[in-house]
Write a structure and sequence with these properties.
- It contains 13 helices and 57 strands.
- The chain has 922 residues and is of the alpha+beta class.
- Among the domains are: 121 residues, Methylamine Dehydrogenase, Chain H, CATH 2.130.10; 139 residues, YVTN repeat-like/Quinoprotein amine dehydrogenase (Methylamine Dehydrogenase, Chain H, 7 Propeller), CATH 2.130.10; 134 residues, YVTN repeat-like/Quinoprotein amine dehydrogenase (Methylamine Dehydrogenase, Chain H), CATH 2.130.10.10; 136 residues.
- Strands 22, 23, 24, 25 and 26 form a 5-stranded antiparallel sheet that branches.
- Strand 37 and strand 38 form a beta hairpin.
- Helix 1 packs across helix 13, helix 9 runs antiparallel to helix 10 and helix 10 packs across helix 12.
- The N and C termini lie far apart (98 Å).
Amino acid sequence: MGLTKQYLRYAPSGIFNVVASSDCNISHVTLNGISGRYIAVGACEHVIIWDMRLGEKAQVITGEKAAVSQIACSPTGNHMAVGYVDGNINVYDLHSNEVICVFAGHKSAITCLQYDEQGHRIVSGSKDTEVILWDVVSETGIARFSGHKGIITSVLFINGKNCVVSSSKDTFVKFWDIETKHCFKTLGGHQTEVWSSILLKEERYLVTGSTDQELRVWKLVWTDKIKDEDKITQQLEIVKLEDGDSEESSVLQCHQVGTLVRGGKGRVVGMATDPGQKVLACYGTDSLLELFAFCSDEDAKLRMNKRIKKQRKRLAKLAEESDNANENLDVSEILTLSDEVRRLTSMKLSGKMKSTTLLLGMSGELRVGVSLASNTVEMHSLNISESSEVKCLKQITIPGHQKEPRCVTFSSDNLAILSASVDSIKIWNRNSQSCLRTIPVPCGRPVSACFAPGDRHALVGCVDGQLLLIDVAAGTILESVPAHTTNCAVVGLTPDLRGCYSGGGDKTVKLWQFELIDDPTGESKAKVLSLLHTRTLELEETVTAVKISPNSKFIAVALLDSTVKIFFLDTFKFYLSLYGHKLPVLSLDISYDSNLIATGSADRNVKIWGMDFGDCHKSIFAHNDSVTALQFVPSTHYFFTASKDGKVKQWDGDSYDNIIILNGHAGECYGLSVGAGGLHVASCGSDRALRLYSRTDEPLVLGDQDEEEEGLATGDQHAPVPGLPGLTMPTKKTIGAEKAADSILECLSVGAEYASQVAEAKGAPVQPPVLMAAYNCSTAEDFLLATVRKIRSSDLEESLLLLPFNSACEIVKLLPTLLERGDSTELLCRLAFFLVRVHHAPLVANRHLLKYLIQIQAKANMRLTELRDMVGYNLHAIQWLQRDVEANENEQLFREATNERRANEKRTRRKRALKRPIVTVT
């Protein structure tokens, strides 16, 4: 049976108006070997890399459905990790824009991401209170750290000690050991939430920000490789600083050395540092960005000596004035926080800050990139070695509204799009999605808009009742008409295109006629467009929506009393009243043949009525929140709806079916417009995005649901491994893991059937199954290896967990043969180790499988030894080549001599420091 009705699918064709999402951080990016010029920002589902010299988009990394919540660039500059609000992390190659690997382990939005110094590992924190460590090289999860009770606010690598620091809203800062995968220290010196933390000065200092005006500075002292006399020195320093007992048993001594007082108001929103960990940037809920520089050891000692000289002079002066020559003039020679840190010039920005990123050049120039809540990205420059003023190098604000756009409309030829917000009205090119005109709004917030016939002018209704007449080509406001005393809620064209109508909060609907008048400014002799008020319809309640039927017979008005009144257009005589909605109707539209009227209400329902008798054909529970916009597709009975739940949906007005649900906004959806012919649909929402959808030639069959959406309901959850409560997987079960498990089961069944056919044939040739032939495999072992290679590395372990025990046994039987060949040793060893780890007891207890396990152990050991020998051989060959090149060029690396000299200097300094605290304490 064929399809009775065929629909065409609408697909997203662009997101514009977003310069930088306020919910995502920003980061400096190195492109084509150039740094300090490019800044990566999150823009809804995409990542935009802005060229801050030209003010243009240098590159766009396109996402799919979830919005970007966190980005991090690798130290090498080749890759970028992008965290999404659905908990997934994608690693992209910046040269090809392709996804290298996908990490699925978190249940909710990613809140923080960081690479280690080699770029081989990523640590991520999420709103699900867990920290996960990922291996980028092997594309797998390493460990899941569970212990926090609040949202993770920052995660940091301590590269020198192979551990991770995490801070959370549960007021704690935790130190995790990567090897043991456990927390070995908890910092509990905060009374309220820890909103941010950062490591500075070669990972020796930890700075944490909370809800108060102070930044707490902690000194990290590792005791595992320190000699006894140095331990005595440091413990005496801690006693002097804290007057308390030191933690002798812990491998890490962490004590507070002081606080940095902020000048900004409110809580700490975030902190950032440059890759060299020299400069600290801190910002709060206001527009002030404060900068602190951590001095080098030599500079800190110079500052300490100057401070001690001043203190001794002051004490000597006081002693002379008091005639007490015996007064003690000794000043303790211990480095304080004031010696280590100096305050740089603070930056007062034009709006509230959302994120910042720092990059320090070799000449001392500090490049500061900031994103503001006003949809703006700025680049500032400052020289930290001199007390220079802050320069603004570039400000990107034109490609987007500074506030949320509230209405959107198409021109009659679908070539231009008009959007309006509190700050401005913008005209966009639909094809290139670039901003053509920006018109400042002189009065209240625009709430409705439409193009005038000919597309040379536009009408915009504002919340203060003004009706703006705009010249599109010149980008100016020709006239501001006081149409209503309050809230011009709707404006639209009459079907004859000779005039327009407007409805407002003053309980009136007014009809206007277009006319040409002399230019009132006198600048031009040409006629300009104006509006002439012709008729007024008085009503009992505030008007929320108006529409004139295409046959020019009726005018439908939605009122605040939840009804829709229909009047004859020529006489304004009452015709019908449509009642049934429980809350006010926010949007309505009439079909092209004037037979149907559809209404969308704040009660989340869409009702379809007949225009002949006013009977309700169907009431549809359309959305999970108020229906804010509704519009019919021209020449059809299909219509689109938009809602505060962010969804955009298409419906069939005859069969009442939901045709398609489009990937909508991350917040509320305010406006919707369907272009001529229904070729394009545009929507605007609280995420500041203008989203464009285009009709494709792909047919759409009702009832087909996306498999991924089904998988989100069944999978996407992390559960402990059955029978192994101590094994917590870094990954979670996804639809990809389920598909991989199905493919492995199918591979095993097809391979077993083929092996039995070969055994029965007794040497006669047997045609391999179609699946094996597609993979170009002749044996069951080859088919298994080809199938496992196709599985995404991050889904492999989860797919093996989903297999039944008998299938795991079949894989174990095939592994010795595969290991014998020496192909894909790393993948096969990973398979073997994981299966033995999960099914250790039953595998060892089975006598038939024990011989296979012994073979796996012997062959895996042999293959791994070969790989280790090959790596060692190559390493020593490269070192030999290095020595040969140095000998030919008569050069030597003085690394050993330099290290020895530095060690001797350190020992000398520690001996001197040992004497100072002993004298001070006694």
